[in-house]
Structure formats: C-alpha cells, structure tokens
Automatic annotation (TrEMBL):
SUPFAM superfamilies named among the record's database cross-references: MFS general substrate transporter
Localisation: Cell membrane
Domain Major facilitator superfamily (MFS) profile: 19-445
Bilayer disposition of the protein: Multi-pass membrane protein
Chain ranges passing through the membrane: 58-80, 92-110, 116-135, 156-184, 204-221, 256-274, 294-317, 329-349, 355-380, 392-413, 419-440
Matches recorded under PANTHER family: INNER MEMBRANE METABOLITE TRANSPORT PROTEIN YHJE (PTHR43045:SF2), SHIKIMATE TRANSPORTER (PTHR43045)
Alphabetical list of Pfam families matching this protein: MFS_1
Compositional bias per record (Acidic residues), positions renumbered to this chain: 449-463
Identification of the protein by name: MFS transporter
InterPro entries: MFS, MFS_dom, MFS_trans_sf, Sugar_transporter_CS
Alphabetically ordered keywords of this record: Cell membrane, Membrane, Transmembrane, Transmembrane helix, Transport
Species name: Streptomyces ambofaciens
Residue numbers spanned by region Disordered: 449-477
C-alpha cells in the first residue's frame, strides 16, 4: 500500500458534480435505449418481426431476441474492459455510448417482417446484439468513474448514481411511449390492452429515433471528464496489464464467481418486475394464458409509480451500505427478496391495491439491492483489472438472470394456468443462490481502490476509506 501523501493535496481532476452527472447521464441514456426495446418487445415486436399464429410463441420469440442481447453483454464487457483497463475509463465510455446510440437509432428505421421478411428479423437481432455489446462496457465504466472519484466514506453513495440510471431510463422510455400512445388516434372498438394501429404502424419508432438527441448530450458530458487519480497512478507506475482478461481469470476467478451470483437476484427481480409484469398485467383475464387484464396505459402508469420507489431506494441504499457495509446490507435485502417471491401471488390476489403494493414492494427491493452493486463489484478487483473484472461479473450474471428470466417466467406462467406462483418461486430460488454467495463472500467496505488490498485502520485514518488520498482529493468540489 502506498505511503500517505505528504504536502498539499493535488488539485481535483474531476469536480464532484461532473463525476455524478457523467456517471448518471450515461447510464440513464444506455438503460433508456435498452428498455425501450423491452417495452417494444412486449407491445409491437411480436407482431411486426415475429409473426405467428400463436401469440405466446411470438412473444417468446421476441423475448428470445431480448435475451440475445444479454448473451452479448459479457462479450462487450471483455472488449470494453480491455480498453478501459488499457486506455482509460473516459475513452471507453464514449465508445460504448456511441455504439449503443447508433444501434438504437437504427432499430427505429428498420423495415418490418411484412416489408423485408426474415431480413428484417435478422437486422433486429443484429441491432439488439449491438445494444447488449455496448451495455456490457457501459455499466462498469460508469461505476468506476463514480467510485474511483468518491470522497472518503461515501463510495457506496457515489456508486448509486450510475445505478440510478436504470430507473430513470425506464421512466423516460416508458413515459415517452405513454405520451406517444396518448397523442396518436385510437382504433375504434380496439382492445384497450393493445396499442393503436397508428402506434403499431409508426409510433413505436419515435422513442428509438429520439435516443440520438440523448446520446449527443451524453457524449458532451463525458467528453469533459478527466481520468481518475487512481487509474492515472496505475498507468504511471507501469501496472497496466497487457491482457486484463487473462489476469482476472487466473488470479481473481473466485471474485468473478461470487460477483456473478451476488448480482443474480437483482437481475431476476428487475426483469420480472418490468418485462414479465408488463405482459402479465396486460393479458386479458379470459386469454389462453390469463393475466390481470389492465389496459396498457393504466398498467404502465402503475409501473412508473413503482419505479419511483426504485429510484428513491437506490439512493437510500448507498448511505446504508457505507454505514453498515455492503455485505450486511445485501444479506438482509436478499432475504427480503426470498420472502417477496413467496408472497407474490397473495399480494396480487388483493385486487388493484394489491397489484400496486406488489409493484411498489418489488421495485423498492430492487433499489435496495441494485444500489450497493455500484461499489461492491468494483471493490472486488484491483485497479489494473477493475473494469474487466467488474464488467464480466455484472454481465455474466445477466445471462444467468436477465437473459432467461422473461422467457422462463412466461413458461412458468403458462404452466401455472395463468397464476404466477411458479414465477414467484423461481425468484425466491434465485435469491437463495445470491444469499449463499453473499455469505461466502467478505465485506469490501474498507478495501482500497488504490491497490485492491484491505485498508489498515492506520492507513484509512490518513488516506480515507478507499485507501487513496489522491482519489479523495480528485473529487473535491
């Protein structure tokens, strides 16, 4: 561990406001891009790109493409992690954001199956994979920008800001879909649970095209960043690895496995509460696979209300994790997720109030479990491989959790004759796996981001909870 710095603190390289805005803005845009596909995958893509005489088959096909992006995320994590650990966080974040923006914009101009046949479906799959590839490099870079520039004792709080991009991106994306649906003329005598003809014909394209504006803003914000003092020191001392992936796999495979399973319950919970619940909430009560029968507008408004709790409790989780530790906080929250999966059906059975309570509780737990991850996963790895290691753990977990969650949930929903009790049981089982990983892991609250080793009490008193006085100074206003 380096000796405490002497003399006056160096000038800050990134003001706190710039760090927080850059980490928040980028992930908000990327999650916006990612989740407008999730919404379209439920509303229009089964009809436009996966025509089938069986609606359930078309929906499952759409979800399968949704999952294909999750498979691409670990590949993106390896690629962008290599760039981030070799070239720096700033350049890599700009490239990942630009990749996501181009892919999302192109989805908005794709021909449909009726216009181009299987070529249209293939292009959608390609763009979806590009989205997943880009997001694979986005999250870990944004988390590192926040945590490597965090002041003493506030690393988990700063780590919640890139996490906050998930609920904000969801609210902006689905809010835009609602506005477009309200402005477009409704189809006479149409099923209220289905979008209008105008929305299906062209309205769904607007959110994808609008992403170009958001990406331009995000690129401007990130172009003003300067590399963190922690990474700059690693580069100056010659500790940059030629092959970060090989170093992570050989020397930190235990952290990779633990990090992957620590994220599992978070992924499963979020995609069940968003992608699956939108299908379940809108399905008619007399459909082949019965649902709740709400109109699209009503249920999305209920979801957005729940996501507000997601955002609020993401921020709440940061100070708790800083005070009590990441591991302790997450153990209690994960145990609550296990219970939530078991009471899933009784809550929904209480009627509209129960459904709203189900959404609020689910998204509250999502915020509490998602928030600390922005600090915990980067803390598992040393600076020289932190981008690669945290990115792989985060995104491999997306395959085990998010890629299959909507697909499995629909199958279990159908197997339960319209009752989602099996879906809740599935969530509880995945949360148990996360609980085991947390119990096997160690607390990372006092780990130094400067060298990846646990900070001693004396060092912490001189250099801060992250073990690097330079990192603390770099975030001063």
């Amino acid at each position: 561990m380096p000796a405490p710095a002497s003399g006056p603190s160096p000038a800050p390289v990134n003001p706190r406001s710039r760090v927080l805005v850059a980490s928040l803005m980028g992930t908000t845009i990327e999650f916006y891009d990612f989740y407008i596909y999730a919404t379209a995958a439920v509303l229009v893509f089964p009809k436009l790109f996966f025509p089938s005489s069986d609606p359930t088959t078309a929906l499952l096909s759409s979800f399968a493409v949704f999952g294909a992006a999750m498979v691409a995320r670990p590949i993106g994590a390896v690629f962008f992690g290599h760039l981030g650990d070799r070239l720096g966080r700033k350049k890599t974040l700009v490239i990942s954001l630009l990749t996501m923006g181009i892919a999302t914009f192109l989805i908005g101009v794709l021909p449909t199956y009726a216009q181009a046949g299987w070529v249209a479906t293939a292009l959608l799959v390609l763009m979806r994979i590009a989205q997943g590839f880009a997001l694979g490099g986005e999250w870990s870079g944004a988390a590192l920008v926040a945590t490597e520039n965090a002041p003493r004792g506030k690393r988990a709080l700063y780590g919640t800001f890139p996490q906050l991009g998930a609920p904000l991106g969801f609210i902006i994306g689905n809010g835009l879909f609602l506005v477009i649906g309200a402005l477009l003329p409704s189809t006479a005598g149409a099923d209220p649970t289905q979008p209008s003809d105008a929305f299906v014909d062209w309205g769904w394209r607007i959110p994808f095209l609008f992403s170009a504006v958001m990406v331009a803003i995000g690129l401007w914000v990130r172009s003003r960043l300067v590399e963190s003092a922690v990474f700059a020191k690693t580069r100056e001392t010659g500790k940059v690895r030629k092959l970060p992936l090989a170093t992570v796999v050989q020397g930190h495979w235990k952290q990779l496995v633990l990090g992957t399973f620590i994220m599992l319950a978070t992924y499963v919970l979020f995609y069940l509460m968003t992608t699956f619940s939108l299908s379940y909430g809108r399905a008619a009560e007399d459909a082949a696979v019965p649902g709740l029968g709400y109109s699209y507008t009503t249920f999305v408004l209920m979801m957005i209300f729940g996501v507000l709790f997601f955002a609020a409790f993401t921020l709440v989780s940061g100070p708790l994790a800083d005070k009590y530790g990441r591991r302790t906080t997450l153990i209690w929250i994960t145990a609550a997720i296990v219970v939530f999966g078991l009471v899933w059906v009784p809550l929904i059975g209480l009627g509209t109030l129960g459904v709203l309570l189900w959404l609020v509780l689910g998204f509250t737990l999502m915020g509490m479990t998602f928030g600390p991850m922005g600090a915990l996963l980067p803390e598992l790895f040393p600076t020289s491989v932190r981008y690669t290691g945290s990115g792989i753990a985060y995104n491999v977990s997306s395959i085990l959790g998010a890629a299959v969650a909507p697909f499995i949930a629909v199958a279990l929903w159908e197997a339960g004759d319209g009752s989602p009790w099996l879906v809740g049981l599935y969530l509880s089982a995945m949360a148990v796996l996360t609980l085991i990983a947390l119990l096997l892991g160690k607390e990372t609250k006092d780990v130094s981001l400067d060298d990846g080793e646990a900070a001693t009490p004396d060092a912490e008193a001189d250099t801060g909870a992250d073990g690097s006085r330079a990192a603390v100074a770099s975030s001063a206003p």
